[in-house]
């Protein structure tokens, strides 16, 4: 992730996890501006000065978290069974179920991710908007490289379907945050199944329905 984080990544894994968990909880519970680095340090059991020894400022910590969490999610999602599935929608559902395991380890990760998709603060807004689009492009190339796209109708672009499902999920999650509700992962998974079935009817050739 860059030489600037070598000091942090040289820490024992347990210490890294404590700091990451504290930061995810704090950023997940607050918007970027309100998130307190003092709270992060306190929850992690370190001083604020030590936190800034590892990360130059709050922005660097925030952006590091996004990259680190994406790596964790990918590690959970892509296993041996993953490569055995070549159906687009089955793979989407499998990935979603695997991500649930990640959420159990980091209860505030979902809220943190949703806030990151809708950044408002000037320190991160443009950087995160660009990062989000790059992640969608990367996800398509990495996660669906082995999919049988021959099941799709000729007039349907699979990448467009990915974008639509991601946008719907993000919109649903952002709405829950706007209503000041904690994210109900089971409810989200139910909605996700409905979206996948709907888009399958739209996207697949009749013989694959």
Automatic annotation (TrEMBL):
Q: Which Pfam families match?
A: TetR_N
Q: Which residues bind DNA?
A: 36-55
Task: Say if the entry is tagged with keyword DNA-binding.
Answer: yes
In what residue span(s) does the HTH tetR-type domain sit? 13-73
Name the keywords, alphabetized: DNA-binding
For this protein, the record's SUPFAM superfamilies field holds: Homeodomain-like (SSF46689), Tetracyclin repressor-like, C-terminal domain (SSF48498)
Q: Which domain of life is it from?
A: Bacteria
InterPro entries in the record: Homeodomain-like_sf (IPR009057), HTH-type_Tx_Regulator (IPR050624), HTH_TetR (IPR001647), Tet_transcr_reg_TetR-rel_C_sf (IPR036271)
Matching entries from PROSITE patterns are given as: HTH_TETR_2
Can you name this protein? TetR/AcrR family transcriptional regulator
Q: Which organism is it from?
A: Raoultibacter massiliensis
